[in-house]
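new request in #modeling-help
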Amino acid sequence: MSFETAKMVDQEDKMTTTDTSPAESAGTAPEGMRVHNLDIFYGNFLAVRNVSMDIEPRAITALIGPSGCGKSTFLRSLNRMHEEIQGARVEGTVTLDGVDLYGPGVDPVVVRRQIGMVFQRPNPFPTMSIAENVLAGMRLNSKKLSKSKANEIVESSLRGANLWEEVKNRLDQPGSGLSGGQQQRLCIARAIAVQPRVLLMDEPCSALDPISTMAIESLMLELKSSYTIVIVTHNMQQAARVSDRTAFFNIDGTGQPGYVVEMDATEKIFSNPTQQATSDYVTGRFG
Amino acid sequence: MTSLVSSKPKGQFGDRIFRRVSTGVSLLVLVVLAAVAIFLISRALPALTADQAEIGVGGDDGEGEGFLSYVLPLLFGTVWASVLALLIAVPIAVGIALFITQYAHRKISSLLGYAVDLLAAIPSVVYGLWGIFVLAPFLSKNLFPWLSDNLGFLPFFSGTTSTSGRTMMTAAVVLSVMILPVVSAISREVFAQTPGLHKEAALALGATRWEMIKMAVLPYGRSGVIAASMLGLGRALGETMAVALILSPADVISFKLLTNQNPNTIASNIALQFPESSGLEVNTLIATGLVLFAATFVVNALARRIAGGEVND
C-alpha cells in the first residue's frame, strides 16, 4: 500500500497548476483528473484515506473493490456530490485539467456542470417527458434555448446514448415509461447533453439485465473518444471488458477507512497485479 | 396433515377479536357522521319548508328575506375568508416546509417543526383575542392606510378604511395563521419523501439548491401540497371563534377587505346569533350549518380527487 501511494505521489508532484476556471480551459488539451492525498470524511469518520491517482483523459477508469470500501464515496467526491450529505467533507485536492475542484471560490454547482454523473438506479425525472429529461441540464445552463437548437441537442444526445431510434417517435412521453435499460441510457443522454468533460458512473448496470448491460458497455466504449469516464462496478468482467485503467479499493475491516491498494492498466490488474490482495480479489478468492 | 387442521391456535381468537374491534370503530365513524347529518337535515327542514317570508334571524333587518338570501352572504363570507386565508397561508407554509426539509440543519429543522406544530395547539379563542387586541390595531394603523392609499384603485382595498381593524383582512390573516400548521406539516412530510435519486439527478446536472427544488422536490410534492391546502381550507371554512371575535359583520356580499361592512361566516354567525334565537330562527341557523357541512364535504371530496388522481397517474 505505502509503496503504491508513494509512487503516485511522485507523479502528482509533476503536475502543473493553472489559474483558469474549468469553463475557460475547455479549449486546451485535457489533462484528465488528478487526485492528491484525498481523505474523505463523514463527520469525524474517515471513510476513505489518502487516495492519490491520475484519471487519464478520454479513457475509462474502473474502480473495483468489495462492498463498503469507499469506491462510490470516492466517485462522489470527484464531482463534489459527496458534500451533499450533512457533515461530509474531504481533505486533499482533486484537479480537473489543472484546476483544484476544492479550491477556494470554486462553486460545486459549476463543478457538477463539468463533471456529469450517472447513478446506480436510472433516475429520469418522472414528471418530465423524454425530451425534457434530455434538456434538463441545458435548461440550467442557458435559460434561452431556441426550439431548433433544443431539438438538435435532444437528437444528438439521444443518438450519443444509442437511444434515438427507440424513442424518436415518443419524445413527448414521460421518461418513466421506458424500460430500465432505456431509462439508464436516457440518463446518460441527459448527462452528455451538457457536454461535460468527465462522466462519472456509479454502478450504472447493476440494476439492468445482461442485454441492457451490453448496450451500456458498448455505449461507454463509444463515449470514451469524447469523454473521460470513471466507472464504479462490482462486476469485474465489466471492468475487464470496458476499462483502460483499473483501481482496486480495499478495506481492512468494518469501521476502517477504505484505501487504494493499487492502480494500473486494466490488463495488468487482471493478469499480473503487484499486490497479493488484488490478485486474490480479481481471481475471486475473496470479496 | 391433521395437526395443521385440528390445532386450535390461540392467535385465531385474538385475531377475530381485533378484527371485530377495528371493524366496529370504523363503523362508529359512519354512525357519527350519519347522526350529525340526520340532525342537521331534520332540524333544518322546518326552515327550508316554512313560508320564506318568515325566515330571518336577528329581528329587525333580517326578517322576511327568505332562507336563500339569508344564507348567501354568509356562504360567500365563509368561502371568501377561507380562500383569502389560503392565499396567505399556502406560500408561507410551502416556504417553511422547504426550509425545514431542504435547507435547514437537522437540529434547526426539528426545532422549527415543533414551533410550527405548536401553532396548531393554540386554542382558536386565543387567536381571536390576539387578533382583536394586537393584530387588528396594528394592521389598521400600519398596513391598512398604506393599502388604501396605494392600492385603493383595486376594489379589494377601496371603501372607508376601518379604524378598529376588525375587517375581513384581519380575519383572513388570523385564519391563515391557524391553518399554517396543517398545511406546512403535510407539505413537509411530502417534501421529505422526495426520492433522493431525483434530487441527486438534479444536483449532478449542476442544479443549484433552488433549481433542484424546482426540478425534483416541487413536482413530486405538488399533489401533496394541493391536498394539504384543501385540508387547510376545510379547517378555515369551519373556524368559528376567531372569526366571531374579530370580524365586524354586516349582511352584505362585499369583496372589500378593509371596511367595517364585512360578510360574516356561517360558523361565526351561528355562534353569534344562537344565544338570542328561538323557534324558526334556530332552524334557520341549523340550516346554514347544513350548508356549511355540504360545502366542507365538497372541499374534502375535491381534495381527495386531486390527491388521489395524481397518485394514480
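bot summary: Chain B has one domain: 73-312.
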